[in-house]
Amino acid sequence: MKKLLYISIVSLLIFSCADETGRKSAGLLPYSAGAPGEMIISMDSTQWKGELGEAIRSYFMEEITTLPREEYMFTVRYIIPQNMSSTLRQVANLVYVTTFDAKGSGAKTIQGYFTPESKEKIMSKKDFFLSTEDDLYAKNQSVMYLFGQTEEDLISNLKEHGKQLTDHYNRRERTRTSIDIFSNREKGIEKSLKETFNLTTKIPAGYQVAQLNENFAWLRKQDPEIDQNILISYVDYTDFEQFEQFQIIERRDAICKKYIYEDKQNLPDSYMVTETDIPFKPIMSRQVNLNGQYAIETRGLWKIPGSMGGPFLGLTVVDESKNRLYYIEGFLFSPGKPQRELMRELECVLYSFQTQKKEVQN
Q: Which domain holds residue 15?
């Protein structure tokens, strides 16, 4: 099976940014611009309107099915290469696309960024289609070049590796978001979680403890329009089957039935459940690396029947030294509001999770 390699070929590329390169080496670059989740894609207009553009959009503008409203993976702005000003080049997420069979003026502009040596390398390997460069025009920026001998070759590589491209930019966005939300933290809550659960995690300022006992914690950050929540729980680890999706959902629903209610005293049936009745909003699970540990990420929707609902993100990970299977979750209630970036904030909190054993090893 072919393996996608993030190989930097910057030494083989001539960018139309000699001034920015010099400023980078001198540490004088400005901070990257753009709203969270924003991306600029620059490519020939004919290719953008055609099959190649459709392939690019199918990944970077993919709908996020685990959110209740229609939202996309990134907020994409298309700019023709001739209009890429120095200000536009400073966006945090920037993607250049070209193929060497294209004859349009936009394609020619981007092709001009490559030296003869780099073109020769590209023309000799059909599966060589990607280069990334960090902090090229601005600090905390990721620039990606997508290229191919022909449109057909690049589209083929995108179909095989497209998910890895979006994963790259989602990781970058999580890093940027983490810098923002962890600039001020609830150290007292972090200490309590470490003492109670034998784990470490970063908790941004504004969260309060709604409930805490020996095997369950519920943290909330609320304002009149947004309610962000973190759940932490564990059970005894018995076998690997506990990572199966149906078991994760069963445990999640059991936790929620015990602890998460709209009004437990007056509405005894008003507890949270996992939404499983919407066929075009399925529960999504995948294997992830959680700070060096095997984990399963689960995304989907929750509801309190007849009342409220929203998205959730859960991580299941084992601490074999304590024989514990942790389930940690972020869920959101923010009706009528964009939720992609609010969920990304919760994702940053969850992905800061480490068992104490792992922390000691580091």
A: 10-181
